[in-house]
UniProtKB/TrEMBL annotation:
This is Glycosyltransferase, group 1 family protein. It is an enzyme of class 2 (transferase). Transmembrane segments: none annotated. Residues 16-171 form the Glycosyltransferase subfamily 4-like N-terminal domain. Its EC number is 2.4.-.-. PANTHER family: GLYCOSYLTRANSFERASE WBBK-RELATED. Keywords: Glycosyltransferase, Transferase. It comes from the Bacteria.
Length: 367
């Protein structure tokens, strides 16, 4: 048995894919690794959340994961002492950053290198240099770096000079959204669906501009979820006079998401860059054809199951959308291919392979 301190300082309820990863992984650990003791070193926000999915005790760090200065200091300086106090044999930092020093073996999951590869798309440019410095420090201190795609592994090697022998690629998985009924999809009422935050690299602007280029008789409706009242798409939709065709939603309940998944003709992910991209996998698992940007990580994740578009070309994107939503045979083919492709990924496998990394690091350290 090993005691594993889990760095949950980034967990605040607002971090998207990294929080999905942490939750799904540790729910699996509860089943696959009952011999281990897990101690969650949590942000103040996480400590106040429902963490019944975590398979161990939670320690409230007193550190805010939303206060960037507190959070950065906590990652660098507080995690290692917390591990010592817990008598831990291993530290796992599942959200890219971790301790500056460590007295015990450390595994860090680094999801992407977007601050390095695409700094122009980062919504908090003042933090670009500090985050890059922290990523460099953490990657050099970690015994093993886990990452979520071959594309991210290549970037970690290129930007952080981490030897490939210290990087383990373990793909994420998805989940079929509960309550989806694809029989509710109406081919005569095409609906394009996009889900996710409005960070610049998600590229919703190009999707909206593409929609405006489709002739109104052929134009599908568009539903975008995942923003607040200050949604930057509001002004763009008004500028393009697309209000009759576009629904802008905030963060929605699972039942609302199931309704949209049931009615969607295509699930769109037009990102300029990603570390893995969970949304297309979840769309494919739910039987929805997916339209995604033609970038290396999407080719790795979706294979030939997706419809690919140039994320920087709204005219070409518009032509592809109009063609695909009007072709039932093509939609059915991509839905079938998507189910097959998505079945290759499972959280059970993600957890099993991650536990194997923990065991390798513990064995190498003599613990």
């Amino acid at each position: 048995m090993a005691t594993i301190l889990v760095d949950l300082l980034s967990l605040t309820g607002s971090k998207g894919g990294m929080e999905v990863y942490t939750r799904e992984l540790y729910q699996q650990f509860a089943v696959q690794a009952p011999q281990h003791e897990f101690v969650g070193f949590a942000s103040t926000e996480a400590a106040a959340m429902d963490l019944t999915w975590f398979p161990g005790r939670i320690v409230d760090s007193g550190i805010s994961g939303e206060n960037r200065l507190q959070w950065a200091r906590g990652e660098l300086l507080a995690v290692n002492p917390a591990a010592r106090r817990a008598g831990a044999d291993l530290i796992h930092s599942p959200a890219t950053l971790g301790p500056h020093r460590r007295d015990i073996p450390t595994v860090v999951t680094m999801h992407d290198m977007l601050y390095w590869s695409h700094p122009e798309f980062m919504s908090t440019p003042l933090y670009t240099a500090p985050v890059k410095l922290m990523e460099r420090i953490v990657s050099r201190r970690a015994d093993r770096v886990v990452t979520i795609s071959e594309a991210s592994a290549e970037a970690i090697g290129r930007y952080l000079s981490v030897p490939r022998s210290r990087i383990s690629v373990i793909h994420l998985a998805g989940r079929a959204i509960a309550g989806v009924d694809r029989d509710r999809h109406r081919p005569d009422q095409p609906l394009l669906l996009g889900t996710g935050n409005r960070r610049p690299h998600k590229n919703w602007e190009t999707l909206v501009r593409a929609l405006a280029l489709i002739d109104p008789p052929q134009r599908p409706r568009l539903a975008l979820t995942g923003s607040g009242p200050d949604d930057p798409m509001i002004a763009l939709v008004a500028e393009l006079e697309l209000q009759p065709w576009v629904e802008l939603h905030g963060w929605i309940e699972e039942s609302e998401l199931a309704d949209l998944y049931s009615r969607a003709t295509l699930l769109a992910t037009p990102s300029f860059c990603e570390g893995f991209s969970l949304t297309p996998v979840e769309g494919m698992l739910s039987g929805i054809p997916v339209l995604i940007s033609d970038i290396a990580v999407h080719r790795e994740v979706a294979g030939d199951a997706a419809v690919y578009v140039d994320p920087s070309d709204p005219a070409a994107m518009a032509a592809t959308i109009a063609r695909v939503v009007s072709d039932p045979a093509l939609l059915a083919e991509h839905a079938r291919k998507g189910l097959d492709q998505a079945s290759r990924y499972s959280w059970e496998d993600t957890a099993r392979r991650t536990l194997a990394v923990f065991d390798e690091v513990l064995t190498a350290s003599g613990r």
